[in-house]
Amino acid sequence: MTHTAKRQIKLGSFLIGPGSNIAAWRHHSTPANAPVNLEFIKEVARTAEAGKFDFLFNGDSAYITRDSTPYFLSRFEPITALSALAACTTHIGLAGTFSTSYSEPFTTARQLASLDKISGGRAGWNAVTSALEGVARNHGHDKLHEHALRYRIASEYIDVVKGLWDSWEDDAFVRNKESGQYVDFDKMHTLDHQGEFFKVQGPLNMERSPQGRPVVFQAGASDTGRELAAREADAVFSNHGTHTPLSEAREFYADIKRRAARYNRASEDILIMPSITPILGATQAEADRKYAETSAYLDIDLAVKYLGRFFSFFNFSQFALDQPLPDLGDIGKDSFRSTAEYYKRIAREENLTLRQLALRAANPKGEFVGTPETVADRMQELFEARAVDGFIIYPHVQTEGLRDFVDQVVPILRRRGLFRSDYESDTLRGNLGLSYPENRYTAARKRPEQAA
């Protein structure tokens, strides 16, 4: 693909759950059982598709405790929910979280390839290393792998999955009824991978989809995570640009693009997309009132426990609620490392109390609480400064927050020429403006011809 079209903002939306606030299930406009209410999830999907969003994002984790966020306790597994949505949507991408630490690459490759085929080329994979100790225990391990090891495993895992997705060349399945040829076996390829962590023969029993292979998302912000993203990801989830100064966001953006170039990747083929929580009002005061309304549902004890989730469920209740937090040292180094480092940094720089930090984590209030014009202005500033390529909308409550954004902010972005009026493609990769990934075996066969 040649990147000649005018650069425009890409948009995704969180799917499962009643909203970004951990107590959003109590809000009057959202069903209490939102995470397991299929009709509600369909409504979210249709709202985002009506707004011409690029994709829906189904975040997930395989571990809960009694202290977990309430709507984490019962929620649909991603491949099931996304397959259901494939049947009632036509263009919007369907991205789900699947762990690289506690699953088999063949299974993940087959599930996502199937979703990609079912949806006509709209599948995406959020490849995570899993940062909770309990996830390990739920999968037969005694403890969480340390950070560097998780990323070594992830690197090999993603490589294996991509190799399996190339098991069949694009035109391998002939299905010629007249000749009786179903498939061209010269275009089937066995992986025969034997690595440090995985031994996988292949081939995958699923043909290629119209987008070649699912879009790969990744969220690591550490140096190791950035390197993995630059090598393997099509899009990067980031907090830079929404929780950091503009200069830091621009440096993160440029750093990822520089690293990608070292792997001979085009700058346009890796997208940087932070999540934002727009809360809209006709005036700033009205938007602030909506934020305060959702904050009123929060229980401080639950907020403190939720904060601990990012630090391997560290018990923060040992600290006084209204005293500045002490130095947290290396707590969280093997959990959600970049998020834990962010919370430690703002606690230190802003001299936050435990209460303030917990509420900040449980119901974040950033620069996107305001009028539709001010929210669009900030999005445009970050985009045009080359700090982001797009945003993932995490509504404060579903579907009210998403509908407000679609009805009030999207038209402003369109008037400014920053967002599409209609889909450009039937595939997720096409709508994101990403290059089609040529099958490695097809490419290898062409090389001698090109040399000649």
From TrEMBL:
The keyword Oxidoreductase applies. CDD domains: Nitrilotriacetate_monoxgenase. Keywords: Flavoprotein, FMN, Monooxygenase, Oxidoreductase. Residues 26-385 form the Luciferase-like domain. InterPro entries: Diverse_substr_monoxygenases, Luciferase-like_dom, Luciferase-like_sf, NTA_MOA. It comes from the Bacteria. Belongs to the NtaA/SnaA/DszA monooxygenase family. NCBIfam families: FMN_nitrolo (TIGR03860). PANTHER family: ALKANESULFONATE MONOOXYGENASE-RELATED, C2H2 FINGER DOMAIN TRANSCRIPTION FACTOR (EUROFUNG)-RELATED. This is LLM class flavin-dependent oxidoreductase. It comes from Herbaspirillum lusitanum.
